[in-house]
Write a structure and sequence with these properties.
There is one protein chain. The protein has a single domain, classed as Up-down Bundle (Vanadium-containing Chloroperoxidase, domain 1). The chain has helices spanning 2-21, 34-48, 54-63, 69-81, 85-108, 114-117, 135-150, 155-171, 177-196, 198-207. The radius of gyration is 18 Å and the shape is elongated. It is mostly helical and 214 residues long. Helix 8 runs antiparallel to helix 9. It is built from ten helices and no strands. 39% of the residues are buried.
């Protein structure tokens, strides 16, 4: 029963991700102040155009997937099945909390992705939905925060991967730098809230049979 509930929750989170974060609708006008958008465009082009390289393109196409919903949910599920239920549940909770933080902003600030407004963008994929903020970056940093709290010896590695995910989103033409910066802040906030409320999260999980304290 516990495994079934976990799968159902995973499906719900994935549904929100696909239908709201990566929908087919592409905003047409950047509503952010010009002081931000101008800096964003210059920095974006320096990374997306200036650093274009066949080897980097292959590398970042692989790395960017680590910030998707699926790998993090799979990781949380594997931890849960392997007997690290506490760690798996907290990682899973960070995805949900991050979604609840980011989704309203995605809907309130419909910013077009760089490839929709900058003709010289080197595009590797045309994702839909608002560019602001970066959901991949949010999830990567939220996961890094939670995992580094659980396994502090790997803190540098967790945050290095998160930084690479964030950078990949600019390199691949999906986000502006400011989207990444806000994604980092939201991710750290989601991770902080997850750890700060871990007792309540685990208590709620125990009520539905997903967790039994040692």
């Amino acid at each position: 029963m516990a495994a079934v509930l976990l799968v159902v929750l995973a499906v719900v989170v994935e549904y929100v991700e696909v239908n709201f974060f990566q929908g087919n609708i592409q905003p047409s006008t950047d509503i952010l102040p010009s002081v931000i958008s101008d800096w964003d465009t210059r920095t974006f082009l320096w990374i997306n155009n200036g650093l274009a390289n066949v080897y980097l393109s292959w590398f970042f196409n692989v790395v960017t997937g680590l910030g998707s919903t699926e790998p993090i949910l799979i990781a949380s599920g594997l931890l849960y099945i392997a007997g690290r239920k506490r760690e798996g549940l907290l990682l899973f909770a960070s995805v949900i909390i991050g979604t609840l933080i980011t989704l309203p902003v995605k809907l309130a600030v419909p910013r077009p992705r760089p490839f929709a407004t900058i003709p010289t963008t080197i595009v590797f994929d045309r994702e839909g939905g608002s560019s602001f903020p970066s959901g991949h970056t949010m999830r990567a940093f939220s996961a890094a925060y939670v995992l580094s709290t659980i396994w502090p010896g790997f803190t540098l590695l967790f945050y290095l991967v998160a930084c690479l995910v964030g950078f990949s989103r600019i390199y691949l033409g999906q986000h502006y730098p400011f989207d990444i910066l806000v994604g980092i802040l939201f991710g750290l906030l989601a991770g902080h809230l997850t750890i700060g409320y871990k007792s309540k999260i685990l208590k709620a999980a125990s009520r539905i049979g997903l967790y039994t304290s040692d």
